[in-house]
């Protein structure tokens, strides 16, 4: 069965459910979460999306980004996806939330109320290769340089969320 997303109003009132692909084809507002993880040196964890992903394959993005399921909180969805994608558990806390809309190519849109969480993680990863090709920690300075020199290597939503994150520091 196709994964479903929770459709919402701009006030986060639930309007219903829709297949994830249909919501992305039509750019309909839905719930999402993003996780930013850092190591003890303050470097940010990036994941490279698997080559088989239906959009934005082989692009770098934040540690985890996905959608809560019906009757699942943003936090529990984020914790679930850290386990499913990275094979880890980490304590995360809410940082901020905002609405954005981004063209991710192939006539697909991300239109999300995104709850952003942050946390620290030092340890091993057990990557789900269907989701994640690789991970790396990088300093914010190096990240900004790479994003300036090769913006096509990064997901559109990560560019937006990173700017929002910096605005909330």
Question: What would you say about this model in short?
Answer:
This protein is an alpha+beta fold and 169 residues long. The protein is 25% helix and 39% strand.
Beta-sheet strand percentage? 35-45%
Tell me the series of helices and strands, N- to C-terminal: EEHEEEEHEEEHH
Classification by helices and strands:
alpha+beta
Radius of gyration (CA) equals 15 Å
Total strands:
9
Termini, distance in Å?
40 Å
Secondary structure tally, helices: 4
Strand order of the largest sheet: 6-3-8-7
The CATH topology label is Nucleoside Triphosphate Pyrophosphohydrolase
CATH architecture classification name: Alpha-Beta Complex
Low-confidence stretches: none
Number of domains: 1
CATH superfamily, called what?
Nucleoside Triphosphate Pyrophosphohydrolase
Oligomer: single chain
Sheet having the most strands: 4 strands, mixed
Shape: globular
Helicity level, as a percent range?
10-25%
Average pLDDT confidence is: 96
Notes on the protein architecture:
The protein has 169 residues and is of the alpha+beta class. It has one domain (4-167): Nucleoside Triphosphate Pyrophosphohydrolase, CATH 3.90.79.10. The protein has 4 helices and 9 strands, in the order E-E-H-E-E-E-E-H-E-E-E-H-H. It has a 4-stranded mixed β-sheet with strand order 6-3-8-7, sandwiched between helices. The longest helix is centred in the middle third of the chain and has 13 residues, at 74-86. The protein is globular, with a radius of gyration of 15 Å. It starts with a strand and ends with a helix. The mean pLDDT is 96.
């Amino acid at each position: 069965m196709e994964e479903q997303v929770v459709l919402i109003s701009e006030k986060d009132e639930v309007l219903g459910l829709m297949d994830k692909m249909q919501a992305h084809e039509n750019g309909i507002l839905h719930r999402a979460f993003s996780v930013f993880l850092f190591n003890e040196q303050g470097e940010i964890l990036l994941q490279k999306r698997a080559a088989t992903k239906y959009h934005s394959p082989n692009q770098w993005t934040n540690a985890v980004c996905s959608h809560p399921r019906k009757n699942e909180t943003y936090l529990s969805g984020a914790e679930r996806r850290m386990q499913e994608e990275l094979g880890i558990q980490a304590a995360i806390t809410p940082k901020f939330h905002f609405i954005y809309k981004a063209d991710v190519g192939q006539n697909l849109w991300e239109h999300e109320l995104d709850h952003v969480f942050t946390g620290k993680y030092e340890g091993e990863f057990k990557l789900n290769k269907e989701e994640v090709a690789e991970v790396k920690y990088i300093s914010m300075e190096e990240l900004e340089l790479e994003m300036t020199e090769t913006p096509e290597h990064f997901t559109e939503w990560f560019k937006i969320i990173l700017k929002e994150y910096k605005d909330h520091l």
